[in-house]
Design goal:
CATH architecture: Alpha-Beta Barrel
Number of helices: 5
Structural class: alpha/beta
Number of strands: 9
Number of domains: 1
CATH superfamily: Aldolase class I
Largest sheet: 9 strands, mixed
Radius of gyration: 17 Å
Shape: globular
Helix content: 10-25%
Mean pLDDT: 94
CATH topology: TIM Barrel
Amino acid sequence: MSYAVKEIFLTLQGEGVHAGRRAVFLRFSGCNLWTGREEDRASAICQFCDTDFVGMDGENGGRYDAEALAAKVAALWGDGTENRYVVITGGEPMLQVDDAIVDALHAQAFQIAIESNGTIEVHPGIDWVCISPKAGSDVIHRRGDELKLVWPQPASNIDAMEQWQFAHFLIQPMDAGDLGVNAANVAEATRFVMERPKWRLSLQNHKILGLP
């Protein structure tokens, strides 16, 4: 298997339960809800994506086999194997994730997290599953550690989502600005949490801090 990788970089996790945690981000190319081309955005299922996942021209981007990819992730982490954490993301990473890359990253002592739209069943070897559903898509993976709903998505069935099997339910204001903060969306998400205490507010702290 040759994996198409957009970029790999060391940073802090900016969102969700693990916000502030040191992490290597492994971003795979490609998505099944949008081509990534601006001319296709209006007709895409996911129209608000703020991520460049097209091609393999980002930092450390390219094609890798499983062992080489895991070795690159380990090299970016640096010395020591304690508390190693890698976030596999995209695009939609489950278009490429398989046994080989999961086994290779585990062999390098990484805890593996994934951020997925949930339209493809997540690999059972993933240690931390974050699903970010997109209104209009068919979410089949309805269990895991985090459900992260970008808001507003008016067509979302919140009552149905609250029956899904997740440990944490997060609402995240949609990005709309250089710092990743939009006052109206933050206010709306805050009101949402006040009305639905099962949920917690998640902000894109990496954008506020100027991190990748």
